[in-house]
């Protein structure tokens, strides 16, 4: 095999894998779920306070989503798939306390 062909194949593999990784969790879907699902309660004068995404670090949001629902959230979580919870986690992490600092605009 010549070098150019190998390089092309590696490039295709990298592009394919990067695409897969991005498809795994989609913050845009998470954003929509936050608006459509979470904000049914988490809104001004709602059943719960508005959520402050930057009140927690990425690690704290991971813990929140990985540790299962609190009793108030049991019926909410039941309607969400593992994939949807992953999208939510990804979106919340995007606006977490420490993510903004990494971008230099916190
Ligand atoms: C049925 C109403 C309801 C829905 C829908 C709901 N929550 Fe809540 N949530 C509550 C209540 C009530 C509390 C306060 C009591 C508690 O902590 O369990 C709360 C508390 C929280 C807290 C802790 C308080 C804080 O501000 O840090 C977080 C985080 C949270 N919710 C995230 C979510 C997320 C994410 C979703 C969407 C996937 C969601 N909630 C959807 C009712 C709801």
TrEMBL record:
InterPro entries: Cyt_c-like_dom_sf
Keyword Signal: yes
Signal peptide, first to last residue: 1-23
GO MF annotations in UniProt: electron transfer activity; heme binding
Gene3D superfamilies referenced in this protein's UniProt entry, alphabetically: Cytochrome c-like domain (1.10.760.10)
Organism: Desulfuromonas thiophila
Keywords attached to this entry: Signal
Source taxon at top rank: Bacteria
Name of the protein this chain belongs to: Cytochrome c
């Amino acid at each position: 095999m010549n070098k150019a062909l190998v390089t092309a194949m590696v490039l295709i593999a990298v592009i394919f894998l990067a695409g897969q990784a991005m498809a795994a969790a989609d913050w845009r879907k998470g954003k929509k779920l936050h608006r459509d699902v979470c904000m049914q309660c988490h809104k001004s004068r709602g059943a719960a306070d508005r959520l402050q995404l930057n009140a927690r670090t990425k690690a704290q949001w991971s813990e929140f989503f990985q540790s299962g629902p609190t009793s108030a959230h049991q019926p909410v979580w039941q309607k969400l798939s593992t994939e949807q919870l992953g999208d939510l986690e990804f979106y919340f992490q995007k606006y977490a306390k420490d993510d903004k600092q990494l971008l230099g605009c916190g």
